[in-house]
Amino acid sequence: MTCNTLEGKTVVLGITGGIAAYKAADMVSRLKKLGACVHVIMTRNAVRFITPLTLQTLSQNRVVVDMFEQPHYWEIDHISLAQKADLMVIAPASANIIGKIANGIADDMLSTTVMATKAHVIIAPAMNTNMYHNPFFQQNLNKLKESGFTVVEPGEGRLACGDCGKGRLQDINVIIDTILNFFKTRQDYKGTNALVTAGPTREPIDPVRFITNHSSGKMGYAIAEAFAQRGARVKLITGPTHLDPPQGAEVIRIQRAREMLDRVMEHFPWADVVVKAAAVSDYRPREEMVHKLKKHHQRLEIPLVKNPDILMELGRIKGDKKLIGFAAETDNVKEYARRKLLEKNIDMIVANNVTAKDAGFYSDTNKVSIIFANGKELDLPNMPKRKLAHIILDEIKTL
Ligand code: CTP
User: Fold this and answer.
1) Which one is the CATH code of 10-184: 3.40.630.120, 2.30.180.10, 3.40.50.1950, 3.30.1370.10?
2) What is the mean pLDDT of the chain?
3) Which residues make Cβ contacts (< 8 Å) with residue 261, sequence separation at least 6?
4) Main-chain dihedrals φ then ψ at residue 348, nearest 5 degrees
5) Selecting from 3.30.56.10, 3.40.50.1000, 3.40.50.10300, 3.40.50.10350, what CATH number does the domain 193-397 have?
6) Among the atoms of ligand 1, which is closest to the Cα of residue 308?
7) Distances (CA, A) of 326 to 49, 318, 337, 369
8) For residue 344, which atom of ligand 1 is closest to its CA?
9) Is 37 one of the catalytic residues?
10) Residue 266's pLDDT is what?
11) Of 8-17, 35-44, 137-146, 298-307, minimum mean pLDDT range
12) Beta-carbon-side half-sphere exposure of residue 348 (alpha carbons within 13 Å)
């Protein structure tokens, strides 16, 4: 589905107790206008902030609060709502409901329905900023992210309680966009196992120093995220980065190129498609000092030895797996990329000039050419890495 409508889609909206609950009325009204069939489940505390009658009037469906009340329609119970849902949205989601979901507790209509549904769940937390930053809450929220829930992070600003900081319910427009995006995204990688590498590697000189490069990991993380959004099972093998783990991906962290090689080889048999976006250090110090190197030398030379070329190794054993590489260049971009494609025996290479404006390592955007083993070449304009990730996935489909 590519149009901006929710016609024919059933959205089950869970509302929990918090001052932002009143904003759910606007959300129901917007979802209805987009054509969705909306069913609302409220927690007992949500009812203190906004009346079920308001949401019933807007959704044109009976609002469910109590698990054990007599159903007015035979099909309205937690199982039928769980089955009916094409998507579940919890907004605002309190720390309490997030804690319950993360720990497998189902003691009211909303938590029971979340547990019973196979539909995707979008969570928009809203709470006091100290609660939001509480480490136990963050652990629970991370559990949900790692299990594939989409979290619409709260906004920052002055909260109803008077505190300032992160915690207020994200703008309804952003939540609605996230819902629309979910339905727009095709699940065309369902059943595919995707192995992605990202970030730099670190090659230790001694316990305090290392050789690395400028890779931020953004491109690889965007690819892992796009695979997960489109239904793939994803393993992301990553060097050190400052990025949040992509939702729905299993993250395997490494430091050295040789560790990346070991992990890649371990998971290669599992993978149907491998995207090597990592910027692997080509060299490492010949020796890794056990103790800190002292500065009594006037001149210091550190001998380097070559690291294994992971992609080259994979090219030798690729079989019918799809293998995609990147080429980070500063000059003769396409020529070098073509050469790498051939030498490494891969299906497709994404070439970028890492010195170009608004592209390369730290940028959120990138400008690339995609070169295929069959000779096809595609020059793409500058665009956000997240968008580019989806285009790369579209092209992988054509291989
Ligand atoms: N690559 C790899 N192992 C290495 C070096 C690179 O797997 N030791 C992979 C990268 O992940 C990327 C591709 O090979 O997908 C090309 O990497 P790049 O750094 O552009 O080129 P190199 O092969 O290292 O060649 P050069 O440094 O000479 O440009």
Assistant:
1) 3.40.50.1950
2) 92
3) 308, 310, 313
4) -160, 140
5) 3.40.50.10300
6) 8
7) 52, 16, 8, 10
8) 14
9) no
10) 98
11) 137-146
12) 24
152 close to 91: Cβ distance less than 8 angstroms: yes
Ligand 1 neighbourhood includes 311 CB (under 6 angstroms): yes
Distance 309 CA to ligand 1 centre (A): 7
Residue 138 has pLDDT above 50, yes or no: yes
Q: Based on C-alpha coordinates, what's the Rg of the chain?
A: 25
Q: Which two tokens stand for residue 258?
A: 């040789």
In tens, the pLDDT along 307-344 reads 999 999 999 999 999 999 999 999 999 999 999 999 99
The rounded distance, in Å, linking the Cα atoms of 390 and 385 is 9
Is the shortest distance between the CB of 63 and ligand 1 below 6 Å?
Answer: no
352-375 in b/e burial notation, b at 16+ Cβ within 10 A?
bbbebeebbbebebbbbbbbbeee
The angle, 0 to 180 degrees and rounded to 10, between the axes of the packed helices 109-116 and 95-102 is 40
Q: Closest Cα to atom 18, ligand 1: which residue?
A: 327
Task: Flag the least confident range among 45-54, 72-81, 118-127.
Answer: 72-81
The CA-atom distances, in angstroms, between 352 and each of 237, 277, 328, 359, 392 are 21, 11, 5, 8, 13
* Model pTM score: 0.66
Rounded to 5 degrees, what are φ and ψ at 69? -75, 155
Amino acid code (one letter) for 289:
M
How high is the pLDDT of residue 38? 97
Q: How high is the pLDDT of residue 336?
A: 97
The reply to whether ligand 1 has any atom less than 6 angstroms from the CB of 354 is no
Q: What are phi and psi of 293, to 5 degrees?
A: -70, 125
Q: Where are the domains of the chain?
A: 10-184, 193-397
For position 67, what pLDDT does the model report? 65
Give, to the nearest 10 degrees, the angle between helix 23-33 and helix 52-59: 10
Residues present in the chain in total: 399
CB 307 near ligand 1, within 6 Å? yes
**Closest C-alpha to 372, from 353, 348, 394:** 348
CB 229 within 8 A of CB 185: yes
pLDDT, tens digit (0-9, with 9 covering 90-100), for 13-41: 999 999 999 999 999 999 999 999 999 99
CA 189–ligand 1 middle distance (angstroms): 26
